[in-house]
C-alpha cells in the first residue's frame, strides 16, 4: 500500500485542522507571493504575483487518477496547497472540478495566504471549493512586512477588502488562520485589529497557531503558550482543538519491508523528497512513509553523515530537513 507519492500528490497527512488530508501541489516548486519568515517549505525562490498554469490541470489530475488507481490509505479531504501559493495557478478552478469527479463526495479545501483575494478570478475559482483556509497574520502594516515579506507593493488594505468580499460570495466553510511569531506579530495592536476584523469577517472558525517546525529564517521563533492563549481567547470564542502541534500522518500503511538494499535506497529517495517539502521529525516521517522508526533513524543518520539532511531542534523536538531545499 502506498502512503506517499513523490510527485504532486502527497500524503495523506493527519492535519489538526482538516483530518486525514490528501495534498495536491499546484506549484511544483517554491513559488509564492510571500516569503514568510516561518515558511516550512524554505525561502521563496520565485517571489511573484504572476498567475500561470504552473502545474497544468491535466498533469495534476492525471497524477491524482494514477494515485487513486493504486491501493492507497483512506483520506477525508483533498487539500490544494503545495510549496507556494496555490491561487497563483490559473488552472485552480479546473483542478477543483476535476478532483470532484475523481473523488466524489470528498470535500475539497484550499489553503491560501489571502494575497490574491482582491482578484475576482481568484475569488470565483475559490468559490468552487468546500472549504477555504485563508491566513491573516497581522493587520499592522509593519508586522505584515516583517513576517510575511510580501512582494513590493502588496496592499494589506486590498487583502482585507478581498477577504470581506469573498466571505459574502462564498457559500462554503471559511477557516481563518492567524500564525503568531514571538516578538513579531504578537502585539496588542494587532490583536485589537484582528478582533475587529474577525467580527466583521465572521469566519466559521479562527485557528491561532504558531510554528511547529523550523521555518525558513532563523529569526522566526514560536509564540509562547501565554500569547497563544491570549489571542485564542479573543479570536476563537469557545474552546476548540488547537492545530499547533506537529501534523501526524495517517497511520494506515503497514511497515515496508526494508530488508533489501534497493528498497532502502528507494526509501531514502522518498525521505529526501518528503524532506524537501518541509522539515519533519523521524516519527512523523516514518508514519507518512509507512516505514519502521528504527529503519528511518538509521537512514536519517546515514543521510546526515552524507550531508544530505540536517537536524534542527525546535520546542524540544528534532526535525530533519533537506540540505539546500
Ligand atoms: S508560508 Fe505560505 S504564504 Fe508564506 S512563503 Fe510559505 S507558502 Fe508562501
UniProtKB/TrEMBL annotation:
Metal-binding keyword on record: yes
CDD domains: Radical_SAM
Cofactor: [4Fe-4S] cluster
Keywords: 4Fe-4S, Iron, Iron-sulfur, Metal-binding, S-adenosyl-L-methionine
Residue ranges constituting the Radical SAM core domain according to the UniProt record: 14-247
Pfam families listed in its UniProt record: Radical_SAM
UniProt GO molecular function: 4 iron, 4 sulfur cluster binding; catalytic activity; metal ion binding
Protein name: Radical SAM core domain-containing protein
Organism: Fundidesulfovibrio magnetotacticus
Taxonomy of the source species: Bacteria, Pseudomonadati, Thermodesulfobacteriota, Desulfovibrionia, Desulfovibrionales
